[in-house]
Amino acid sequence: MTFKYEQNKIESFETHGFENFYKEAYIGYFSPEGNLINFNNLLGNSGHDEWSNPVSWTFLNLVSYIIQDTSISKIKEEYIKLGMADLIEYNEYPGLDEYVIRGYKVDYEFNYKSYDYFLKNLDEYWDYYSKIRYLEGYDKFKYDLLKFFKNAYNNKNFFENIQRKIIIENLEKIKEHLNLFNHFDDYALESLCRQEVIKQLLSYAKDIYVQYLGYDSLERFNTDYKPIEIKKDKKYDFLNIKRVITTASSNPIERYYNYLLMDWVVHKVPKYNFNEKTKKYEKSEFNLYYQSEKEEILENEIKSLKKCIPLEQRHKYFR
Question: Does the residue 51 lie in any domain?
Answer without folding.
Answer: yes
